[in-house]
Amino acid sequence: MNYPVKHLKMKNLPMAKVTHDLQLIENRQLNPAYHLLIFKSSVAIPEVFPGQFAELLTPDSAATFLRRPFSIYNADYQLNTIQFIVKIVGNGTKKLCQLSTGAIVNIIYPLGKGFSISEGKSLIVGGGVGIAPMYLLSKWLTTNNREFDILLGGRTEADIINVKEFSEYGELDITTENGKLGQKGLITTHPWLKDPGSVYSRIYTCGPEAMMRAVARIAIASQISCEVSLENTMACGFGVCLCCVVATDKGNLCVCTDGPVFNINNLKGWD
Amino acid sequence: MNYPVKHLKMKNLPMAKVTHDLQLIENRQLNPAYHLLIFKSSVAIPEVFPGQFAELLTPDSAATFLRRPFSIYNADYQLNTIQFIVKIVGNGTKKLCQLSTGAIVNIIYPLGKGFSISEGKSLIVGGGVGIAPMYLLSKWLTTNNREFDILLGGRTEADIINVKEFSEYGELDITTENGKLGQKGLITTHPWLKDPGSVYSRIYTCGPEAMMRAVARIAIASQISCEVSLENTMACGFGVCLCCVVATDKGNLCVCTDGPVFNINNLKGWD
Amino acid sequence: MPNLEVNIHNLILKNPVMTASGTFGYGQDFGDFYDVSKLGGIVTKAVSKEPRQGNFYPRMAETTSGMLNAVGLQNKGIDNFESVIYPELKKINTNIIINVAGHTVEDYVYVCERLNQLDHVHAIELNISCPNVKDGMAFGTSCPSATALTIAVRKVYHKTLIVKLSPNVTSIAEIAKAVEDGGADALSLINTLLGMAIDAEKRKTVLSTAMGGLSGPAIKPVALRMVYQASRAVSIPVIGIGGIMNGIDAVEFLLAGASAVQVGTANFINPNAALETITGIEDYLNRHSINDVNELIGML
Amino acid sequence: MPNLEVNIHNLILKNPVMTASGTFGYGQDFGDFYDVSKLGGIVTKAVSKEPRQGNFYPRMAETTSGMLNAVGLQNKGIDNFESVIYPELKKINTNIIINVAGHTVEDYVYVCERLNQLDHVHAIELNISCPNVKDGMAFGTSCPSATALTIAVRKVYHKTLIVKLSPNVTSIAEIAKAVEDGGADALSLINTLLGMAIDAEKRKTVLSTAMGGLSGPAIKPVALRMVYQASRAVSIPVIGIGGIMNGIDAVEFLLAGASAVQVGTANFINPNAALETITGIEDYLNRHSINDVNELIGML
Ligand SMILES: Cc1cc2nc3c(=O)[nH]c(=O)nc-3n(C[C@H](O)[C@H](O)[C@H](O)COP(=O)(O)OP(=O)(O)OC[C@H]3O[C@@H](n4cnc5c(N)ncnc54)[C@H](O)[C@@H]3O)c2cc1C
Ligand SMILES: Cc1cc2nc3c(=O)[nH]c(=O)nc-3n(C[C@H](O)[C@H](O)[C@H](O)COP(=O)(O)OP(=O)(O)OC[C@H]3O[C@@H](n4cnc5c(N)ncnc54)[C@H](O)[C@@H]3O)c2cc1C
Ligand SMILES: Cc1cc2nc3c(=O)[nH]c(=O)nc-3n(C[C@H](O)[C@H](O)[C@H](O)COP(=O)(O)O)c2cc1C
Ligand SMILES: Cc1cc2nc3c(=O)[nH]c(=O)nc-3n(C[C@H](O)[C@H](O)[C@H](O)COP(=O)(O)O)c2cc1C
Ligand code: FES
Ligand code: FES
What we know:
The complex is a heterotetramer, with 2 copies of chain A and 2 copies of chain C.
Chain A: E1 18-31, E2 34-41, E3 53-57, E4 68-71, E5 74-76, E6 81-87, H1 91-98, E7 104-111, E8 122-127, H2 134-143, E9 148-154, H3 163-167, E10 171-176, E11 183-184, E12 202-206, H4 209-221, E13 225-229, E14 245-248, E15 251-254, E16 261-263
Parallel strand pairs in A: 8-9, 8-12, 9-10, 10-11, 12-13
Antiparallel strand pairs in A: 1-2, 1-7, 2-6, 3-4, 3-7, 5-6, 13-16, 14-15
Chain C: E1 6-8, E2 11-13, E3 17-19, E4 41-43, E5 60-63, E6 66-69, H1 77-89, E7 95-100, H2 105-116, E8 123-127, H3 134-141, H4 143-156, E9 160-164, H5 172-181, E10 186-189, E11 193-196, E12 198-199, E13 204-205, E14 211-215, H6 220-233, E15 238-241, H7 247-256, E16 260-263, H8 266-269, H9 273-287
Parallel strand pairs in C: 3-4, 3-16, 4-7, 7-8, 8-9, 9-10, 10-15, 15-16
Antiparallel strand pairs in C: 1-2, 5-6, 6-14, 11-14, 12-13
Helix pairs in contact in C: 2-4, 3-4, 4-5, 5-6, 7-9
The structure holds flavin-adenine dinucleotide (2 copies), flavin mononucleotide (2 copies) and FE2/S2 (inorganic) cluster (2 copies).
């Protein structure tokens, strides 16, 4: 359990972004669909807050033209390593997960605005690869002496990964739709989400949009705060192309710079 | 010295072409610019005649879209291996020479019409990477009991490769423009090309176009036959795109199917 | 097994996959790779009245995810076609579509009249769009000339008349309508986009003609857009062409509104591309439990 | 050290490399990566009279070696530009070129008149070509409307007036001449090619608007051709845009006839692309012993 020492701060605001090459030092296949990729940087990695992401460029691939955005799963400022959980869904993620140790990947990071600190006890709800930003979040909340529980859900047991790592930080429970691991059913049927207002003051969630919308509805019904980490199709990842908008009370905002984490109160159509 | 047994035949005509995957089993860097690539086929390789070529497809590279044509340097029908000498000149050749053992490369071959058998003694004149088709030619002439000498030329000693392999088959001499290896000067200043008509009845040549044209002029002056192996920009390599034409006495012909080997008598502007 | 058969006017295609003109020769060269009779149709290299030597070398430039060609309609003319190529084509058991090019309306009419006599020519594709020949270009980039040429050929050609459109126009919908008005039975598009490549090191254009025709996956988004626009503008069938590399690309064109597709540049990179496009479409249909490929056409 | 300075009418560019509208925001976001004052110029995202929300999500589709966008000119309008963005732009020590979009001639004139008052706006680039906005498109695809718009803006704008052309036309040379006749000081081209992407699995268009603008290396051959044609048709300077990823690409555009270039989509893939394009041109000049970048312009 190595805390990223810089995570003692509570403020989670965009830092200066940098771009440089990383070297893949470990490509750990977690299961056929999920890989944990560990990269090492030869220069000091910038401070990364939970919920922030990076844009990775797969070297010389005919299959992908643009970079791909990935949440930062973990960062170690002593070892200068940075970790991602990648789920294979198309050409870019496939190519990335096929890279051999030693491969060079260019990165732009840290990008976007991450989660904000909660006041009371909070609940982390991660669905599938949506758990990716939740590990740093768990560390950060712990470092800042916040109480929280962790709920991880997936379609099958293959979508539930790195449970051990998470359980070091908080009480953890699991749901799968096929019931092969944890409680059977949609994550939203878990008891912790029955009346969350009685225990939690905030829900943090990331996962498939349908899941996040269901969680958001529960949070609204329970009158507690809810932060969601959105996805969008991104060309740049740092606010210049305006391709990644979401409708908010302030008009169309960019998911890459004004998000990816939004409070559902500010999103249009999320109530 | 392993003869490709099938090379006992004298007729050198296009065979049915095939396309399949090959596996790179050796990538031998001969010097910074030249690599010998040895591929293994899991199916029997087709009979290949000297001067014929193949179209190779580098796997998933953003740098190249089309296949690249390469002369077949050597083929072994027992081991099912096929060899190429590749000179790095641009993205495609660079990428190919960077491949690691085990890489899969798709091939279409054998393509084009190769050299024809000589009657008297012949002289092989190879410049730089133009030596690539000459190794199979040397083997074939030997198998068919033809006498020949081999002259290899280059700008520097780095352009003179695989001399040992060639010298197993015939008397060999070398020229370099910088004089670091063999005789100093252009290949066309070598004594064997002073009055070739007195010794040889045929010249086979492959190399930079300026060199081949100079050799052709010498052959014409000496009234001996001369076959040149031409290059051209190719999209398909097997006669369907009509991108690779050369002006001949029969009009525009495709270098990929009517060549790459032409008798200079049939070429326009080569006299 | 889903149904793959589609119709282009009177033409019955056993599947929606043809090969594009200029990328498949006259079919013979692919016989080594697979039985070309498995294709829905074969569109030949352009045939003109007189033999043509085409442009000077170099004729090809590789570009990012595409290529430029400046072949310039090299072919041996209609006489040679009839005596040498046609007998070979008769051995192929699928639709044979002859791509026709000309300098003048009279040239086109002459060639089409001759082709009208040949039983095993199932359709012609009027190439009014090749950007490499000055005269050919003009027909495809103005509505009145496109209509006039179509009307003239229609008079002498009585089987399926396909007109192939140039993408180098402001409004593909207007040209499409003009050609429909002229009496075409079907449209095919797109031909190549006019482009250029420059060799910075040599400070020269790569092609002998400076400009040439761009093809390959690079142009697929433009081709899809034009097929979408053209198929909505006319009521005759549209054949989609441009950057198709596999079955999924082909399905995209069908969804955009094409009734069939042609595979072009892909044949150079993967000689089995057209065949694999057929199986790719079949796989798609099976995966989505669709019984008939016709259900995909225009179903966005 | 070769000379990199070029002129676009009254504008002196310390080097021929600018950034393309819509790919560089208003310059601020790239400050983390390098000092943007090193660029020859910065072209901003389009500014319109009223704020615009742009199109619905999804606005982007990746294509082979390119991308489609359907941003739809989202911006906060000229008032916000003046009060919020302009003060920031004043801190940048290079040419600031404002890309202007409008629904009507009056809109364009209004915005250009306001911009004419701002000292640190060195030029405007009239976007008559964005394919995502119906009205904007019309100006760029017909000669009379392109001329009329240019004349109207010319009357109120007294610094360097650049007009940005749409590639979705039959004859780029004619549009170029029409705009020159209207009084433009320079042309920039190309804007995006109109294209489309389809998600076969979902059987839907990828973009909310169905069609969008294609950019990136895929379009470079078309862009080079149009710069070549346009620069030969007019006597005002031409700025080359389309798929430039590095210095060699930029040199190709200069050779084709461009006096300067803009780097667009490349900024997304490599945030240092524009800066590296400058050093790439410099390397090329050194390698070829050319003392002045102006020697490359049109030197095919
Ligand atoms: C802020 C952010 C953080 C993310 N974090 C992670 C993470 O930690 N781990 C992870 O595995 N994935 C993450 N994703 C999703 C990841 O970016 C996409 O899975 C990836 O871009 C798909 O690339 P591909 O080439 O494999 O798929 P493609 O072949 O491009 O597409 C496959 C599918 O993915 C969708 N997709 C493609 N590009 C994007 C995109 N830019 N954003 C969203 N969906 C897309 C397509 O619509 C399609 O359905 C994140 C996305 C965002 C926006
Ligand atoms: C029949 C034939 C046989 C050949 N045999 C060999 C061989 O045995 N070994 C070998 O190293 N090379 C051989 N070549 C040349 C080889 O095909 C080119 O060097 C290769 O295609 C360049 O690819 P690239 O991507 O590295 O270069 P690019 O980046 O594409 O171009 C670099 C340079 O190579 C030239 N070039 C590019 N494509 C071709 C092409 N298709 N034909 C000719 N020149 C081209 C370009 O004009 C440019 O000057 C042969 C070519 C032909 C036509
Ligand atoms: C080398 C080459 C030659 C071509 N010759 C012709 C031709 O003779 N007649 C014609 O109508 N189209 C011709 N075309 C255009 C193609 O048929 C097709 O319309 C175009 O290449 C786009 O499809 P693709 O991207 O699949 O190649 C040619 C294309 C190429 C690449
Ligand atoms: C996301 C995006 C937004 C764009 N917005 C504008 C715009 O507001 N105004 C404009 O004139 N061009 C706009 N363009 C076009 C570019 O400025 C440029 O002309 C085009 O992308 C081609 O260059 P490229 O291939 O280098 O990107 C935009 C392009 C992209 C990719
Ligand atoms: S991805 Fe470009 S602005 Fe968000
Ligand atoms: S390369 Fe296609 S015909 Fe020769």
